[in-house]
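step=encode ok
step=design start
structure_in=
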């Protein structure tokens, strides 16, 4: 899999890099894309995996989200807050538990490709549902618990203090209202959450299925 930056493959992705500017970038011009995010961007372009839909890419390692329209144009970039514990797989039945029953070790933002749509939480506030069954969403930063210091965490120059949520992705209010909401209103979209432990290949590029032939030998599936 090639790693591509700039205007490669028709997508307006910035050049790859490691750490990025923490402030919200309203048009993405100052965004810096990690090598992993660049690899996924190239794959999306090569395969048209987003199917013409708007999409978000959540880079958990760098605690950053990048938003794109259906043509792959970068709309903006912002820091994010993520699940308290590191991991790539949601615990079984996590969406059926009350918050009080979710221990620190289970507060994970899972990796994967998700079909997302706008909706509301139980309080009637607008959110972007990433995985309804797992109660996973992206929403404006929650500030009701002062001890969490969520706004402060979003504003620091490091990604090390951005782990605080129960698993949901928290973004700056302006980024949600001016980028996410307009892009996803009236349409579904895709959210790609990059892994932090598993490989990109394991999460996004699964090996072809293998079926057993009539002779009893394994052969690639052609379904």
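sequence_out=
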């Amino acid at each position: 899999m090639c790693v591509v930056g700039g205007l490669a493959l028709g997508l307006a992705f910035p050049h790859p890099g490691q750490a990025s500017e923490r402030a919200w970038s309203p048009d993405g011009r100052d965004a810096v894309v990690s090598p992993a995010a660049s690899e996924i961007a190239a794959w999306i372009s090569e395969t048209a995996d987003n199917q013409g839909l708007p999409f978000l890419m959540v880079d958990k390692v760098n605690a950053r989200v990048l938003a794109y329209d259906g043509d792959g144009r970068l709309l903006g970039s912002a820091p994010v807050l993520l699940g308290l514990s590191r991991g790539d797989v949601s615990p079984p039945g996590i969406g059926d538990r009350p918050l009080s029953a979710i221990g620190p070790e289970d507060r994970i933002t899972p990796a994967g490709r998700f079909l997302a749509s706008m909706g509301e939480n139980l309080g009637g506030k607008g959110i972007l549902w990433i995985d309804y069954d797992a109660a996973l969403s992206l929403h404006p930063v929650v500030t009701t618990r002062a001890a969490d210091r969520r706004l402060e965490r979003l504003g620091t120059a490091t990604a090390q203090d951005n782990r605080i949520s129960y698993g949901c992705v928290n973004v700056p209010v302006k980024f949600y209202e001016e980028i996410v909401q307009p892009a996803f209103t009236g349409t579904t979209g895709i959210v790609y959450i990059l892994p932090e432990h598993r490989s990109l290949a394991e999460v996004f590029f699964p090996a072809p299925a293998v079926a057993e032939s009539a002779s009893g030998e394994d052969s690639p599936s052609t379904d």
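step=design ok
step=annotate ok -> The two ends are 24 Å apart (CA to CA).
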